[in-house]
């Protein structure tokens, strides 16, 4: 890997912004999106191996079989982060590497990989932040109902203890789930993600069992001595003139996870709306106490707000069961390659709202970033769109800190271009470009700029 380190950036002269001392700067990835090595060293199949092989589910039939080959190239990837000066790296552990069937026998060779990765990070002064579950559910568990089967919650806690048992002497910060909303409502309610089921009732039951698994995993991690424990949610402020519509979507997107986790109750409006699909009998006595086990850190993944308008006759959006009569989209803003609007103010609003409505839990941005159609020209990638997206969102995060939000850090999504789920490799989110034919890594302009932000602790 060569980095044109001599190149420097004039940070836009729109006022100098400093972040608080000790602010954590880093980057994030996820196992299935970058590791490849899908059959190496005893890894079992995950729902994403199955789903990506199901015709029509993932763009052009792409799979994570090879991805960025990070499993073999992690020393190079860690060296890139070191050269960029990143403090911290958020990665996820592949459950089917550690327990090929999701429960029962442990595969020590799978744990060995994370052992090597953690040691490499620490040797380069980069603090690991572990996510235990970023969507690659062992297929054996899915064959028994996956997140719709209550038993999975206990299996998840066992796996958490196993992972902590091996890495807990060196890893302080543990997060349980990444974006349970996506697992539940993309995976089980709308079929857009693995395992590809499309039944609203399953979506709500999966959501509950994910939360229960989180709570049991928090207990297991604490019992084995984890220092800092949290969870990551994908949250979107909902914008719209029609207050009931915006409230409903806010419930289905945000409060359905925030309220049980941080207040120990499901929001009444969501419970009511979902009654047309489910009687909620999967919620047992004591579950909400388990789910609301105190956490040390809330991970926030923010990409864009959700704009909604009331429109009679509009069918429900399958990812928001019960949302008929509401039209989505139409923000007056530039768009990324995902078609997502670029609206940085949403991040300020979100962080301030979390501080106001759910006080007392420190926040960290565990993902923020954008896809653009990048091209390599003479060994460089001039990704001005991403650079300005990141600049705008860092300014927005800073404004929230000034407004009182207890924001501790920022992790860009993503370190590398990678397997973007149903979009396959066609959407590039990396600050480092990956040429999939050669596995060559090229830091984009945004990476060099970000490195300068990290060095200055500000903009
Ligand atoms: C989030 C996911 C992450 C990546 C980004 C673009 O929903 O957590 O894996 O796909 O979106």
From TrEMBL:
<protein>
    <recommendedName>
        <fullName>Beta-glucosidase</fullName>
        <ecNumber>3.2.1.21</ecNumber>
    </recommendedName>
</protein>
<dbReference type="InterPro" id="IPR018120">
    <property type="entry name" value="Glyco_hydro_1_AS"/>
</dbReference>
<feature type="active site" description="Nucleophile">
    <location>
        <position position="367"/>
    </location>
</feature>
<dbReference type="InterPro" id="IPR017853">
    <property type="entry name" value="GH"/>
</dbReference>
<dbReference type="GO" id="GO:0008422">
    <property type="term" value="F:beta-glucosidase activity"/>
</dbReference>
<keyword id="KW-0624">Polysaccharide degradation</keyword>
<dbReference type="Pfam" id="PF00232">
    <property type="entry name" value="Glyco_hydro_1"/>
</dbReference>
<dbReference type="InterPro" id="IPR001360">
    <property type="entry name" value="Glyco_hydro_1"/>
</dbReference>
<comment type="similarity">
    <text>Belongs to the glycosyl hydrolase 1 family.</text>
</comment>
<dbReference type="InterPro" id="IPR017736">
    <property type="entry name" value="Glyco_hydro_1_beta-glucosidase"/>
</dbReference>
<keyword id="KW-0326">Glycosidase</keyword>
<dbReference type="InterPro" id="IPR033132">
    <property type="entry name" value="GH_1_N_CS"/>
</dbReference>
<keyword id="KW-0378">Hydrolase</keyword>
<keyword id="KW-0136">Cellulose degradation</keyword>
<keyword id="KW-0119">Carbohydrate metabolism</keyword>
